[in-house]
Amino acid sequence: MVKNLQNLRKIAMLTIALFAVSFGVKAQQWYVMGEYIWSPPHPQGTYEELHVQGEDVEINGMEYHTIYNNTQGILLGAYRNEENQVYYCKWNGSAYNEEVLFYDYDLEEGDYFNENDPHPMMVTEISTIIDNNGVERRKFEFEFIGLDEEREFWIEGVGSSKGFVNSGNYTPTSDGAIFHLLCYHVDNNVVYVNPAYDVCDVDDIDESSINNSISIYPNPTKDVVKVLNNSNLNISKIEIIDLLGRTVASAKSSDEINVSNLPEGQYFVKLHGETTIVKKLTISK
Fold first, then answer.
1. Is residue 14 classed exposed, middle or buried when 0-12, 13-18 and 19+ CB atoms within 10 A define those classes?
2. Strand, coil or helix: 266
3. Are 159 and 167 in contact (CB under 8 A)?
4. 136: which strand partners?
5. What is the pTM of this model?
């Protein structure tokens, strides 16, 4: 996945520059990973996409910013900001749909979003993060009413953990697709990186000598994950992060971590030291 993302990033940077020159915009970019999950025997897998802000357009007398899937060059829709709210008009192939409220950063804990949806989102927790530029941003944690395993979070001014245009989407029980925001750039500067991935501004992470000299075992595991540290990296903290970017377990100054209380599935092990290393982990019981 990391190597594919690097190749996508190289292509995307040139394309983004062309957007900026052509439209004179302050280019914003969202890197998104999709996981498509279909009922057997249909295939499953992952892919990366780039969503980029394009030209400004006028819809019903108001100015919007267009968003493209720049991997495929497809117009997705257009959005506008109004104080702490974001409104979005989806492109249906021939015209823009009616505007809908897409983000509301004035929500408080216990508030509902998309109340008319069969599975409305409820704010369960609001915290503060520091982005890559040192700016404080609020983080909104949601659960979907009636869907016990479905979660989402928003970063104020950035968008959803599922990708800017995928906010509020949930996965059917039998098939569907899940999206994860990898990172958010403005003018090629990293603003936010999803802590589950940490690959947005790292070149050749899989080929670095430090990364290759550190491994985790056993993998898959059912109870304990150990770190084989051949580089003598001073590891100050170990985190286990789920696919929604949530830290579900952590240990300080240790070469192992207990994951026996976590459910089966795919996770990431994030090792903090002089540099940050991220490893994929499978928990299987």
1. exposed
2. strand
3. yes
4. 130
5. 0.66
pLDDT > 70 fraction of the chain, expressed in percent and rounded:
78
Give all strands (DSSP E) within the chain, no chain letters: 28-37, 44-59, 62-69, 74-82, 85-90, 100-104, 112-113, 121-130, 136-144, 147-155, 159-160, 176-186, 189-193, 214-217, 224-229, 237-241, 247-252, 256-258, 265-272, 276-283
Q: How far apart are CA 65 and CA 216, in angstroms?
A: 44
pLDDT tens string 95-128: 999 999 999 999 999 999 998 899 999 999 999 9
215, 204 contact by CB (below 8 A): no
- Cβ-proximal residues to 55 (8 Å cutoff; 6+ apart), any chain: 22, 23, 25, 66
18 in the Ramachandran plot: left (φ > 0), alpha (ψ -120 to 50) or beta?
Answer: alpha
Q: Per-residue pLDDT averaged across 181-196, rounded? A: 84
More confident residue, 237 or 12: 237
* pLDDT of res. 233: 73
User: Of 189, 169, 181, 192, which is closest to residue 32 (Cα–Cα)?
Assistant: 181
Do 258 and 247 meet the contact criterion of CB atoms below 8 Å apart? no
Q: Which candidate, 63, 43, 45, 61, places its Cα nearest to that of 53?
A: 63
What pLDDT was estimated at residue 206? Answer: 36
Residues near 53 by beta carbon (within 8 Å), at least 6 away in sequence: 19, 25, 26, 27, 28, 29, 65, 66, 67
Q: Which CATH number is 208-283 given?
A: 2.60.40.3080
Are 196 and 241 in contact by the 8 Å Cβ rule? The answer is: yes
| Dihedral sign from CA coordinates of 89, 133, 3, 266 | negative
